[in-house]
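INFO batch 0412 | record 1 of 1 | parsing
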Amino acid sequence: MARIIKFEKNDCAPCAQVSAYLDSKGISYETINPFDEPELAVKFKVRTVPTVIVLDGEEVKHRVIGFKPQELEEAVAQ
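INFO prediction complete | emitting tokens
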């Protein structure tokens, strides 16, 4: 099963939209604030929020930057 990580910050409207979308689909994900955990942001090359990363083991399978429902649907469907 894929691991989904969402990088976000608290006052980010698009971040809230991504959360609402994933929640409405019943998709489990881990939320990380890149400012609180900069080492993870560097590891996954996160430069903006929201960024959703779908991992298979340690391999990045998909990356969605911003609130893009169609891309999110494709990324989490696999």
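INFO post-check: The first strand starts at residue 3 and ends at 7.
INFO record closed
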